[in-house]
Design the sequence.
């Protein structure tokens, strides 16, 4: 198994280009809950270092956790990550790169809350395992989807994500009622 997770299947240059426009940086800043675009320096690290991106996204709306991450962007993150966490990190990085290509668009509140309501009623919805470094990195008391390992409140915001389970009545749709990839 690879030691270092891939940022995406596409080239880093394409990804940085797609996610670095002033509009994308402003939208990402708004997603984080700050009133200005994130700097180009922050964005470049976000798009090339999955652990940093994940930590930043999970600090969205929490100024005390965001500020040090945005100000001291050279600070290093934990280096020892288990193979399972590495897989999850690679998965999160791919989801992040798909999202970056939309210029950090997100779903409207109605769709977001509909997705969350489905997750809350799902047997795969539960607390993140406390012993996993990846979840300690992103904070405590996060509810995750055990099928994909994603933090549900974040995943449900992204237009590029879908529920991995088929709808019981309409298997061509996910449980979120959205078309599944062929
Ligand atoms: S994403 Fe789908 S499988 Fe995961 S918790 Fe939500 S409804 Fe369940």
Sequence:
């Amino acid at each position: 198994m690879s030691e270092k997770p891939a940022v995406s299947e596409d080239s880093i240059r394409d990804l940085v280009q797609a996610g670095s426009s002033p509009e994308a940086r402003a939208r990402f800043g708004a997603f984080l809950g700050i009133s200005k675009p994130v700097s180009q320096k922050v964005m470049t690290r976000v798009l090339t270092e999955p652990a940093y991106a994940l930590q930043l996204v999970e600090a969205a709306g929490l100024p005390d956790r965001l500020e040090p991450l945005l100000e001291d962007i050279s600070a290093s993150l934990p280096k020892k990550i288990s193979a399972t966490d590495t897989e999850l990190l690679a998965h999160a990085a791919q989801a992040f790169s798909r999202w970056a290509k939309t210029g950090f668009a997100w779903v409207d509140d109605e769709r977001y809350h509909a997705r969350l309501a489905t997750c809350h009623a799902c047997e795969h919805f539960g607390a993140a395992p406390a012993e996993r470094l990846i979840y300690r990195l992103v904070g405590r008391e996060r509810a995750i989807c055990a099928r994909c390992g994603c933090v549900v409140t974040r995943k449900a915001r992204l237009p590029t994500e879908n529920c991995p389970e088929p709808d019981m009545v309409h298997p061509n749709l996910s449980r979120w009622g959205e078309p599944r990839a062929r």
